Amino acid sequence: MGSLFRSEEMTLCQLFLQSEAAYACVSELGELGLAQFRDLNPDVNAFQRKFVNEVRRCDEMERKLRYLEKEIKKDGIPMLDTGENPEAPQPREMIDLEATFEKLENELREVNQNAEALKRNFLELTELKHILRKTQVFFDEMNESNREEEQVTLLGEEGLRAGGQALKLGSAAEDGKIEHEGGVNPTESMTRALISDDSIARQTPTGPVQLGFVAGVILRERIPPFERMLWRACRGNVFLRQAEIETPLEDPSNGDQVFKSVFIIFFQGDQLKTRVKKICEGFRATLYPCPEAPADRREMAMGVMTRIEDLNTVLGQTQDHRHRVLVAAAKNIKNWFVKVRKIKAIYHTLNLFNLDVTQKCLIAECWVPVLDLETIQLALRRGTERSGSSVPPILNRMESFEDPPTYNRTNKFTNGFQALIYAYGVASYREVNPAPYTIITFPFLFAVMFGDTGHGMIMTLFAAYMVIKEKPLAAKKSDSESLNIFGSNWQIKYNMSTVWSNKDLQLNPGTDAYLQYPYPIGLDPVWQVANANKIVFLNAYKMKLSIIIGVFHMLFGVVLSLWNYTYFRLTANIVFQFIPQIIFLIFLFFYMVLLMFIKWVNYGPTNPTETGPYCAPSILITFINMVLFKSSAVPAECSPYMFNGQQTVQMLLVCLALLCVPWMLFGKPIHIMRSRSKAHIPLDSNHHPHAGGTENGDAEAALSQAGAQAPAPSGGGHDEPEDITEVFILQGIHTIEYVLGSVSHTASYLRLWALSLAHAQLSEVLWNMVMRNGLIFEDWYGGIALWIIFAFWSVLTVGILVLMEGLSAFLHTLRLHWVEFQSKFYSGLGYHFQPFSFEIILDSAAAAPDE
């Protein structure tokens, strides 16, 4: 329990290890996780340390394992995680691990390269298959069109001869303005004839004209710019046909599915041929040989299909072999990662050690908890026995003026609250730990601001479900905004129609309707129908509760500072800080809380006039008049005071509270001046509570610098005494901060009232303006309307009341703990204990993103 309320007592130890046993001993300490090593070679470059080669070998093994892991995940093979935690291998086992990883990597890379080459070959054959099919379709279409054109032309000539209109039709055809009866344009007919199988070479008056063509495959999205570039570069002297490949093709380089199109380009002359090929190369189109004769194309297509079938067989065998290799690796890769990371962590830690002059002994310094010294000794003996060394390790405690690290033992439950404290600042060494008190106060203050009994039950069930499942799940909101378990303490005689239709309905506790005793838990649900005076009642009630909770919370924080002062033997801080602070807070603000309870007890709805609700004095006005030494103005039949002698008591309390201000302001600096004058020399400070005196003025001044009068160990060593002027200035700042902070912090707790009221009002608004509208329909369609409205209301409830209000309440609760509570006693100037622990290293590696 000492570690929960105050950090563990730490000690600096010097460790002497024989070189042969150092690896095994550090491995045992890593499994234990109780030693934080210091770097004894801060000026040595990381690449010049003794075990840098071993670290590089571990980095290389990690790289190979990441490569294997990537390939395993790519194939979707589950990696076996048995939950085992293998020990760190011996140094001689590194060679076997390196050989295993090297063999696996080389084999996998070779298989991948072969598979990629086969896939690339398969892609080329598949593209060639589609080219042969599509180009054959092109040529077949053209041949059929040419035959149809010849028939139409013969019929047209006979008609011309019969009609005797050859001259007229001839000139019209010459102008390209008339189509033949078959609907074939002469220009199009010439183009089709041009690219037919038997017209690749045509005879002209000047000699034979050789027409060439190229065929290939291009990405589908590049077709439009590709066509435009061909038109512009070749000035329209080429003819392009293209057709889409329906099925996507696999890119062998990255495995992506891509869509491509087949194209064929006809041109005339070598110059156009060169230009077309350059354009194809620029657009990364793949060109394939395509025979001119139909018989050659059919023969090539048959050969391509045979080769594709053979490739499919080889590819299947290659994939099976690759899968077997990855499955075998997946069974051990988790354990391999653990082993390699442990080896790497050990050598990283050994690089922090120093070599003695004989080069046979390693020297280390580490912070360890005092309570675990014996456990660490046993771990070192086990390491020595594992290594077979005959020289036992030596562990010596050292004296140090350096502040030790802060170490608080936590578990799954307390770790979350400790993280909230560390987010503000790590506690100074042996300082009071706010975490155990935050475990109680944080949920309490959050609940005050967030919800009611119904919401609390839902959150409790949800928390229990999360503990069982250990998975973050979405929260759900209760569909009821008020929970009536204990009935009501009001006996209302109104009928339901009057209650729901009367907007000015008020509740008067002075009538016979109220049973005159408090509701058991929470707020009486009948207040939900008091539309007229519900807000007035809730405002006053929740505002007073906020002040009461805040004052007690701050008083507890000041009391915790006494625990710090007592532990560190800072008597001057007790006399000149704690006592005036607690008097100031009690005589003013705790007295205000007492007035609230007196008002609740003495002034009731059925009391006589002088103690009735009409004569009940305002707490706020009473407190203001108390500080200003004024009396409250009240009606003649009422008394301005709640008890006899109240004015005298209030004046005495204010005077004593005001005397605490110079007490805090001048007491400590004067005490420091007198201490220095008696000693004639400056006193040194030490972090240990039992080393070096009781009333060290310089140490106390340093503690005041830490902020808000929280004690902390001094910054190590022998500091020069501060100038007395600086002491006065610092004490003046802290005094003003405390006096004004007492007022502002008390007012800050009104956020409990504000957020609680806002949560309740938002719940009521959503119910009245949304959900109630779904209950007014009485016909069959009312169910449909209710279903739609309920869905909308649920979304708003979860989004606004649960998420937004929950986040707001959490942040305000966090602020109340950090500022209003912890500022009374907590400095948070320490640094965290970071032991060499395999568990922490492996958890960090598992949480890190893939490289």
UniProtKB/TrEMBL annotation:
Region (Disordered): 684-719
GO biological process: vacuolar acidification
InterPro entries tied to this protein: V-ATPase_116kDa_su (IPR002490), V-type_ATPase_116kDa_su_euka (IPR026028)
Gene Ontology annotations for the cellular component aspect, listed alphabetically: plasma membrane; vacuolar proton-transporting V-type ATPase, V0 domain
Residue ranges the record marks as coiled coil: 51-128
GO molecular function list: ATPase binding; proton-transporting ATPase activity, rotational mechanism
Keywords: Coiled coil, Hydrogen ion transport, Ion transport, Membrane, Transmembrane, Transmembrane helix, Transport
Low complexity compositional bias, start-end: 699-713
Sequence intervals crossing the membrane: 444-468, 545-566, 578-600, 612-629, 649-666, 780-804
Main function: Essential component of the vacuolar proton pump (V-ATPase), a multimeric enzyme that catalyzes the translocation of protons across the membranes. Required for assembly and activity of the V-ATPase.
Family that this chain belongs to: Belongs to the V-ATPase 116 kDa subunit family.
Protein name per UniProt: V-type proton ATPase subunit a
Species: Timema monikensis
